[in-house]
Amino acid sequence: MATISSPGIGSGLDIKSIVSQLVAIEKQPLTQLQVQAATVQTRISAFGQIKSLVSTLSDAASRLGSLTTFNAVTAASSNNDTVSATAIGGTAVNSFSVKVENLAKAQATASAALLPVGGALGAGTLRLQLGEWTIVPSSFTPQSGGGQVDIVVSATDTVSDVASKINGAGAGVTATVLNDASGERLLLRSNNTGVAAGFELSIVSDADGDPADAAGLSRLVNGSSIQYAEDARMLINTIPVTSSTNKFENVVSGVTLTAKAVSADAAEVTVAKDRSVLTQAIDSFVSAYNAVNQAINEQTKYDPSSKEAGLLQGDATAIGLQNALRGILQSATSGSAYERLADVGITQQLGGDLAVDSAKLEAAINNGDELKNLLRIDNGNALTNGVASKFSAFAKGLLATDGLFSSKDASLKRSLERNADDQARLNDKVARVEAALNRRYSALDVQLSSLNALNAYVTQQVTLWNQSSSSK
Description:
By secondary structure, the protein is an alpha+beta fold. It has nine helices and 20 strands.
């Protein structure tokens, strides 16, 4: 049977309030533990932010030290309406003329008009053969190794049914139906452009017995109009070149040309160094470095006027990281006319941020190989390798699964786990203390209640005695 407890009723003491206040005193260390846990969690977030910024710095350093950055080129056409150009990194600087003589075309056919619209064609078998029209329109060379598909047509099939069967056969040709004033037409078109992607539609069998007439299934073949496939043609420095598509890849080494329209005059295509890629890479590196430096400065600062310290003020890991980054900036590189970033106009300012002297950097960019060596030379020595290579290697080490950030994160999380254990133990202790206090004060309540009852009885007896004595 459940018991109803109302401590303090018998004695008049506010036992609940007394116990609550005593328990609050016992709980005071819990508040401190909770504050400590919140601080550790915030430190985890702070190092997570710095880790993210170091990852960005790693990417920026890798781009700065990449050959792709130094080998970047740009290709430009004097007439993009007729021909456009792109080039891969490392392509030799050059220029040449391009005249577009022909655009690539896919073969397309249209059958004679068929009536009635939606009527059956007649049974038989059609054959689609991929290949090349070597002599238009009399000589067709089938594609070697296949490219032949037979389409079986039933007596009830319409033009639309035949188109569906061709599209479902994967014949390398797309079929559709055109309705015009004259009737229905079967339209076929190669899936690819160029003379090698031509096709021939022929009759294998026709139910009316004459595959050469203008009746039955033969109507899809006989009387068809044909646009034959063509290659794209260009003159590059007056030398003719062809392509099955309008894209000419590596006709000029490293350059892709795209024919857009036939031109009366030649366009001039120029391949030049793209210095903007290197400039952007340097700007990205400087911004990424400054973001890391500013984040560490903010977290480790101390404001003497407000006497407030940053979350990581005095943290050996954060300070050590910043010192290591600055040490790389100050380290010397061998094998280049430049030893340090400061020699090419990238200097450290008060507070540690980097600033760029554009004029000095421009001069270094003009001295391409020496700047490249400063940033990416491999001397087989981590102390004297290129600056970008040093930063990239250092950042990758920090970000590795066994690197500084993983170790710091694991350490802080272990601290959180210990804190959680301490809080659990303290809560258990508080619960035991509260239970003990309730037992003691409940016992005291019972005792005081008994004493109060005895006091009331004695008082009552004394009163009776006094009344009895006075009546005598």
